[in-house]
Amino acid sequence: MGEVMAHPIAGPVVQAAIVEMMKGMDGVADIMPEGVDPTAMMASFPFGRISMMAGDAATPEMIDGLIAMANSGGAPE
Question: Which domain of life is it from (predicted)?
Answer without folding.
Answer: Bacteria
